[in-house]
Every structure is written in C-alpha cells, then in structure tokens.
User: Fold DsrE/DsrF/DrsH-like family protein from Diplocloster modestus.
Amino acid sequence: MKICIVGGVAGGASAATRLRRLDEKAEIILFEKGEHISYANCGLPYYLGGTIRHRDSLIVTKPELLCKRFRVDVRIRNEVLSINRQEKKIVVRDLTSGTDYEETYDKLILSPGASPKIPPLPGMDSDGVFTLRNVTDTYRIDDYLLENKPAAAVVVGGGFIGVEMAENLVDRGLSVTLVEYADQVIASLDPEMANILHRHLSEHGVNLMLGTGITGISHGSHGLRAGLTSGEEVPAGLILLCMGVAPDSRLAKDAGLDLGLNGSIAVNEYYETSDPDIYAVGDAISVTHLVGRTETLVPLAGPANKQGRAAAENALKGRKLKRSPVQGSSVLKVFDLTAASTGLNEKQLRQMDLPYKKTYVHPQSHASYYPGASPISMKMLFGDDGHILGAQAVGAEGVEKRIDVLAAVIRLGGTVYDLEQLELCYAPPYSSAKDPVNMLGYTASNILNGDMPVFYAEEVSSLDAQTATLLDVSTTDEILMGTIPGFQNIPLDTLRENLNRLDPGKPVYVTCRVGLRGYLATRMLLLNGFRAFNLSGGYRTYSLTG
Ligand code: FAD
Assistant:
C-alpha cells in the first residue's frame, strides 16, 4: 500500500506515524510545502514573547527522525499542486529546485490546515504587516522586531492567537493596541466571562479597542498607521492580523472534491472525501459539534491530531473508525489568568434556539486556609434534564483542570447530578473537599429541583423596588466595597431576627458577594413562607455584566 499525505504538521504527522505503527511495509510519503514538519504552532506566540528561547524548541520532530524511526519519506519544501483522481497521481513541485514531478498513490490523506484571513483592504501587504501561522512567519516577525525595534504594535483580532500575541508583544516590551470588531475577545466565552479578561488585559497595559474594526493600513511619517472604523488612526511599528482562519481547500476544490461548510473539505463519517481513496482531516474539514449536533469549524490541535490518527487507520486498514464529534475544549493564558471553556456557550445556545439553564459560582481554587488560593469564576449551562451543555472558567489557578473534568463529563453524556457525585482528588494545596466542579453540580441541581430559585444579573435592571424586596445579605463592610443600586442591606447573620421587616406579600430578590450566602438567605426565606430568589453568582457576576 502506498499512502501520500499532504501537510506535515498536526493531522499529517499524526497520520504518518500511525500508519507506520500499523504497517511495517506500507510506503508512506509526507509532503510539506514549508521548511518544517511537526512544529509547535501553539508555541509560536511564546517564542515571540521570549518565554521559549530557542528556535530549535519549536520543532517537535525533525524530518530525519520521522525518516529514521518511522521510515516515512518526508519531503519538505515540496508542494502538492494538483490531484489527478482518475490516474491516482499527484503533481508535486520541489520548491528548492523548482521542478515538478508526479507521484502515484493508493490512498491520499489531506491535512493542509487553514490560512489566515486577510480582508481586502488597503495596505494589508505593507512592510511590517504580518500574519502568524507557521515557523517561517514567526522567524519573519522575530527578525523584523530585532531589526526595526518598533515601540508599538497593533494586533487586529481578539481570538486566541490575537490575545496570546498581545500578551507576548507586551512581554517583548512593545506597547500594544488590540483591536476587535466584536464587543468582546475570545468568542468561545460569553461576554460577562470575557469581561474578566478585558479588565486584565487593560491592567497589563494593553490598549483594548472593542467594537472596532480595521479599515486599512497606511504609511505615516513614523511608520504604519492602522485606520479604524472609529475614524481613528493608530500608529504602530508592527501590525499583526489575527482575524481568524479559513480552511485551506484549494487542492481539494481543484480536484473536484465536494466542499462543505465555509469552503471546508467535505468528508463523510469516516473522514473520506467524495472520493473514497482520499481522506481529509484537521482545520481543513468541518466537524459535528458534540453538544449542538450542527456542522461547525473547530480549528484546534487536539481534534486535528486525533482525526489524523483515525483517518490513517481507515485508509490503511479499512477500519471504519467514525468521525468523532468535537466539543471545542480550549484554554488560553492571558498574563496571570487562564480562561478555558468546553461545549456550547450561552450565545450559541440562544442562536441555536436550544433551551438551557445556567449557574455561576466563584469558588476558591483550593482550600482558602491554605496560602495562595484565588477565585475561579465559573459558568455552566445545562438542560432541563440535567445534561451539561457547556462550561467556562476564568481564574489564576486550577482553571483548566476543572474545565477538563467538565469536558470529560460532557463527552460521556453526564449530568449535573453526576457532578455532585464526582469524587475528585483533594488536599488543601489543590482543592477543597467539595471541589468547584462539585459546587457547580450542587448549585445546578438546586436550581433544577427548586431548592434554589434563581435570578440573573441581566434581570436586575427590570426589578422594581415597589413590587419586590431587593436584599443584599453581605456584611456592612462588604457593602462599602460595592452593592447593586437599590438593594437594601440586612447581613445574613441578622436576617432571621429581621424577617418581620420584610413584606411577606412581595417576592424577595437576594444577593451577596458570590451567591453562597444569598443561597442560605433564600433557603431561610423560603422556609419562612417568602417567595425568594438568589442572584446566581452574586455581586461578582453582576459586576461583570453590562
Ligand atoms: P496544520 O498544522 O496547519 O498543517 C498543515 C500543513 O500543511 C502546513 O504546514 C502547510 O504548509 C501544509 N500544506 C498545505 N497545503 C499544502 C500543499 N499543497 N502541499 C504541501 N503542504 C501543504 N490549537 C490548539 O488546540 N491550542 C493552541 O494553543 C493553539 N495555538 C495556536 C497558535 C498559533 C499561532 C496557531 C497558528 C495555531 C494554534 N492552534 C492551537 C491551532 C492548531 O495549530 C491547528 O488547529 C492545527 O495545527 C491544525 O492541524 P492541521 O494538520 O489541520 O494543519
């Protein structure tokens, strides 16, 4: 069997090594048009910021290793130009010699990735304007920084790469403006969760311009100027375009293969394209969302690697491994914070018209009496039957571990009731006897079984003090640090003796700092005959909205 692979990084390199582990005799040829295979795309921003110091560290596997250990015929700087499906041949250009040649295949696996989106606006090809996709781009940006020593940069786009690059350019000593067309960064988070990042980015000196797009790039007397939809022009020595990626399906399209969502390469449930001898994986294909069951694009390394492995088994052995749905689990470092999410967020659920409930908690990352604990802000979305639809978390410590647990529970079809029962490892430096994930389970099941009727921060503005009692049960000292306008203060520990001050005919809307004492007050009120509701996530969530 002779298998050719197009693309030598996440999906392609995974496919190549899996093929060899399954078959000692197969002829495996890996074509990569760039200089490098199997490089650390995800590490590129950290090289530019100086955390990863050596260029060599970015290359995970050198071609020689793949040749020696896996007997893969690796051809770097070889671009596959076209596919002749009738004759099962590809035309390849050796970019070093400039010559074209043909190669036959029995099976072909495409993992060409995605290309950065560049809008058709003036000045996008100016000197000093970059996109970041591969090691060559990284070296180019690094060399430019070393030679030109720009004092300021504009990063356009507040997705994962844009935010990571904003941080890393700050680390590199530049003053950074981050321009994002939407009113929030990191679209996988809901706005109130992203607000934590907005504040943190600003605290670290990033000039964050939300709701602002780029209109073009011009040359001023002191370098580049980024024209913005606000009418402003921001001067910069370097402009980085991080405006998302589009599936690289040119080769497939020219070969007459079917295309799918947003020009991605269409594949069936076994990663076969419309030609059964050609498979496709990675950023170039669309995936089915595990929770929403809709087709979507999830350009992440984890899915690409797993798909490459599965497609290799199907192509070589005819194993019919099924295309795995994707849930978009992702994590991001933003200076001293970590943000992570899995599944669908509230914006997506609303767009898809899927019914949901939600809960917010802000527990400590580990036992509060052990030094160094810090709060994690968490949000979980779930259905009426308790199935978990998605979760998001932002904090300084222990964030990704909680989202990983939730990702696993979602993958296994678990419910909020399962979260209550999860037995997670505990010692004071790491967690609490009731882990934050358990807390999400408790609050969600309390909502579902009616033990804790809730209201949400976005409903606060419609509450009327004439028809409802608005109550903050924080301590008097805490109130001095902030409370919701219009809420009267009766600290929780004095509430029982003050119940006679509350009108039993009015519903009581309760808040506290993070929702825990509000829950206790709500229970007390309910058990004393009041209609009561607790603000999910308390004042902390309220302060993140709007
Ligand atoms: P790629 O890994 O992009 O590989 C495709 C390769 O195919 C390219 O090297 C390309 O040169 C080659 N190619 C294309 N056409 C041809 C042709 N005709 N002939 C020969 N070769 C060809 N994901 C995460 O999950 N976590 C992260 O933290 C993360 N950080 C990232 C940071 C950056 C800066 C970037 C750019 C991406 C990041 N990603 C991250 C995304 C992740 O890297 C991709 O999802 C993943 O690499 C996709 O794998 P792939 O095999 O589909 O494509």
User: Anything to note?
Assistant: The longest helix spans residues 301-317. The radius of gyration is 27 Å. The pocket of flavin-adenine dinucleotide is lined by residues 6-12, 31-34, 41-42, 44-45, 79-80, 111-113, 132-134, 161, 248, 251, 282-284, 299-302, 304 (CB under 6 Å).
